[in-house]
Amino acid sequence: MLASIHDVGPRFEGEIDRLAELLERRLGTAGFAMLVVPDHWGRHPLSADRGFQTRLRGWADAGVEIFVHGWYHRDMADHRGLAAFKARHMTAGEGEFLGLDERQAAARMRQGKALIEDVIGREVAGFIAPAWLYGEGALAALRRCDFRLAEDHWRVWDARSDAVLARGPVVTWASRSPMRAASSLAFAALARHTLPVLPTVRVAVHPGDVTRPALLSSIDATLARFARTHAPARYAALQEP
């Protein structure tokens, strides 16, 4: 079982604490990953918050895997065609890497990698685009930026060779509206019955999840169910022989 906390950074410190406590209770301190946003929406720079830097390094020292999760997380591109549909219906202005060209994507990836590795004192585990959305430019840049791992809604892959390491949907929750919350609760309930047949299951939580008790209960139930059949693992274990 691969579990992760998204949107980690100074903007959501209180929410991250609550989610980390929930995951630690079910999976142990080193049983999940954190996806770090270097400067959420251009308003909450990790580089300026020494206190959160110390906390992030402490999590990494304790065994939490750290991923680069975009730079701003905010999508400021003008989309057309299929990309416009994804930007409108699969996220609320958060798909930062959906519309970037290769040069822009590579610059943000490298800056994020350098910053976070300096903070945690070790190599990051990989790169995961905000909202799991990658445009062609982002995919091309990813192959050049020396990340080990990447992930989207349906798979985890080796970012250097493009080899797929795990397949299957990631179980996540939505808090933006009552309708989206209800839909995510229904999918999580279905996933608890159907996904344990897969060799690898994935769970991802977000800061907004703490705003709805029903979502937290569903997350806890999902972790408990998957833990009966799948041991908590590191993403890096997918690349081990």
From TrEMBL:
Q: Which InterPro entries match?
A: DUF2334, Glyco_hydro/deAcase_b/a-brl
The alphabetized list of GO BP terms reads: carbohydrate metabolic process
Residues that span the membrane, as ranges: none
Instruction: Quote the protein name from its UniProt record.
Output: DUF2334 domain-containing protein
Classification of source organism: Bacteria, Pseudomonadati, Pseudomonadota, Alphaproteobacteria, Sphingomonadales
